[in-house]
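Entry 12.
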Amino acid sequence: MKRVIKSIMLVSIFSIIAGYSCSNKNENKEDENPNPNEEVEYPIEIPFEDYSLAGTSCKWKRFQGKTYEYELITIKNNEDLDNYIECTGESSYPEIDFSKYTLLLARGIASSTNKVGYYSLQQFSEQGYEMKVDVFLTHATIISYWQVPIIVNKLSEGYAIELIVTHKSI
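Predicted 3D structure (tokens):
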């Protein structure tokens, strides 16, 4: 009799564990396969990696605009990147795998010493993006240049990125 009760208890416990395990697997499958017809909620914060020339003898070529002008450049290959970087000696800049990534270069000029503060990239529609850059200005009257190079996952054709630069006094 004791064996029968133990067997029933073991079968019951096994059934509970097996049932819980199966229900968790189904829940995970639902998370992995969201409804493709579900509407995406914008804006979406786009992850990026800073691109730095530190540790090389390379530097960004100067922006040729007027004071308080700025631009956003999309760089999709090494030939384009060569147009914006100059290196001395045998140094070279860090490589980017342009088959997987796109480099976005926001840059500008200000009439006072400046420092780039916060910057972000958000997606507002299927093909619409917005890059925001805060530039902090001092009261010194020295022309200075700024740049924000970031690497993002390769962008599809037909996208549009608006650059919004905010100058803030410190």
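Annotation: Confidence is low (pLDDT under 50) at residues 1-33. The first helix runs from residue 2 to 32.
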